[in-house]
Design a protein that fits this description.
This protein has a five-stranded parallel β-sheet with strand order 2-3-1-4-5, covered by helices on one side. It is built from three helices and five strands, in the order H-E-H-E-E-E-E-H. The protein is globular, with a radius of gyration of 14 Å. The protein is α/β, with parallel strands linked by helices and about 110 residues long. About 30% of the residues lie in helices and about 15% in strands. The two termini are about 15 Å apart.
Length: about 110
């Protein structure tokens, strides 16, 4: 909601159709007093919030929320990438570590909250 309130584009990258539908549904329901207007797209667009399986920066966003567990092609135009450090299984933990190492190699500042 932070980026939307500031009128900053946000792209949410998902790995598969099930994830795409889950996030779409969530953004229509939360927060309960409102919803976050968004689109599902695989093509260039100008909407503030885009959910996509595409690896491209479709809305020229500086901010990406990565919900893919595998390594992704990262566009250097992103200022901030949000990701999860998933420790629910050894495999997911290893994938999280690989993404972390990639982010460091690309010069991103790593913050943990």
């Amino acid at each position: 909601m932070y980026h939307f309130e500031k009128k900053e584009n946000l792209i949410i990258q998902v790995q598969d159709e099930a994830s795409l539908r889950f996030v779409d549904d969530l953004l229509w329901k939360e927060p309960k007093e409102s919803f976050l207007p968004h689109v599902i797209s695989q093509e260039k667009c100008s909407d503030f919030i885009v959910i996509t399986k595409s690896k491209e920066n479709l809305n020229n966003s500086l901010f990406m929320f990565n919900l893919c567990s595998d390594l992704i092609d990262i566009n250097k135009s992103y200022k901030t990438i949000y990701d999860f450090d998933d420790h629910t299984s050894i495999n997911k933990q290893q994938k999280s570590q690989k993404r972390y190492e990639l982010y460091k190699q690309m010069g991103f500042t790593i913050e943990s909250k």
